[in-house]
Amino acid sequence: MVIMVNRDILAHQLFTGVSRQHLACLVEELAGPWQAVVEGHRHRARGGVRKREAGAGARYRLVFVDRLVVTLIHLRHDLPHSVLALLCGVDRSTVTRAIGEIRGLLAERGCAVPGRPGLRLRTLADVFACAQVEGIELRLDATEVQVRRPAAGRGGRRAFVSGKKKQNTMKATIIADHQGRTLWTDALRPGRMHDATAARNEGIAVCFQHFPEVEVLLDDGYLGLRRDHPGQAATPPRKPNKIALPHVHAAREEARHRHSSKRITVEHALADHKRWKQLTRWTHRREVLPVTYRAIAGLVSDRTANA
Predict the structure, then answer these.
(1) 149: helix, coil or strand?
(2) What angle do CA 110, 226, 186 make, to 5 degrees?
(3) CA distance 251 to 99
(4) In angstroms, how far is the first alpha carbon of the chain from the final one?
(5) What CA–CA distance (Å, rounded) separates 35 from 42?
(6) Using alpha carbons only, what angle is made at residue 262 by residues 261 and 263, rounded to the nearest 5 degrees?
């Protein structure tokens, strides 16, 4: 039995997580790159150049717009491929191939820049350069997504065990601005890695050197960065000596409160990401999670940049 659901219903914001206007912009932006990807696959399969005019040949049962909608629903609600295939009246392998194509294109987009239509940030250096030009004070933090434990007998099983969560996780580092708008996310690291180490592996030390006017607000997990880059990496003040006077402790608590109030916006950005069900708990292959996280971060940045 084949069930065909109205395409207008599937494209609703409750299913896709994006407005119809946002969906229309994504269609316009990604249609060309998707066609290039498809032609590349066909070229490798044919082993030669195209011999027919563009548009010739068999028609797709799942056109580009439907492929985009199916991918968004999968990212938003984590519906199985077989369920999406049943809703669209196609084979499961068609949905799997469509999600793999569209998800990669979404991940390559990067994050939107507020007030700069068409400009997107894809690397940490891009974020620091934009922050120095625009005078933005950055907020950086890390979050962990629970993943499946590697199979027994494979090396590196302990690398994913988080000392904080006591679970198998992968760690993502996020940068947001003072309004909680996502500006960048990195390639995910195993959950056992320290937050500061993950940031260093992405080249944050080099960015601090090349962009000396950029300041980043951090939490207590990045004290090493504050030590190495004073004046740029700002963390809450350390706890004073036990014999310090009461007014010293009061001043420290007030300073920590001010710092936390300014840094809390990056926590709001992380909360926006976790509203997409696939990032609450990842049950698929671990090597696909980085692409998925970047795709979702780019979609969230589109919405917050235009808010």
Answers:
(1) coil
(2) 20
(3) 53
(4) 43
(5) 11
(6) 95
Q: What is the CA radius of gyration of the chain?
A: 22
| Distance (Å) of CA 131 to CA 184, 212, 219 | 12, 11, 19
Tokens of 140: 């950086």
The answer to whether residues 101 and 37 touch, using CB atoms and an 8 Å cutoff, is: yes
pLDDT for the residue numbered 307? 67
How confident is the model at residue 168, as a pLDDT? 92
Question: CA 124, CA 126: separation in Å to the nearest integer?
Answer: 5
Residue 216 near residue 184 (C-beta atoms within 8 A) = no
Global confidence as pTM = 0.89
> Is residue 49 scored above 80 in pLDDT?
no
- How many of the other CB atoms lie within 10 Å of CB of 9? 10
C-alpha angle 163/168/169, rounded to 5°? Answer: 85
pLDDT band, residue 53 (cuts 50/70/90): low
CB 198 within 8 A of CB 186: yes
Other residues' Cβ atoms within 10 Å of the Cβ of residue 110: 20
User: Is the separation of the CB atoms in 265 and 179 below 8 Å?
Assistant: yes
